[in-house]
Amino acid sequence: MGRELLHYENVCFRRDGRPILDNVNWHIEDGEHWALLGLNGAGKSTLLSMIPAYQIPTTGTLRVFGKEFGKYAWP
Fold it and tell me: What are the residue boundaries of the ABC transporter domain, all occurrences included (predicted)?
C-alpha cells in the first residue's frame, strides 16, 4: 500500500440547490493510475476542481496529500 494522495469521503456538491455530486467516496494512492470517464454534465470537472480548492464540497471531507479539506478546513 502506497502513500495516500487523494481521499474523498462522503463528498456532496450542490449548485443552486441541484445535486452535482452525491456521496462520493474515492481513494487514490501513490503509484496508482486512474481514468475519470463519464457523460457530459456527470460531474467530472467538479470532482477534479475540488483538489486545488476551486470548488468546496457542500458536505463531506477531502484529503489531499494528507491535509483535510472540509466545510471549515481549507488551506
Answer: 21-70
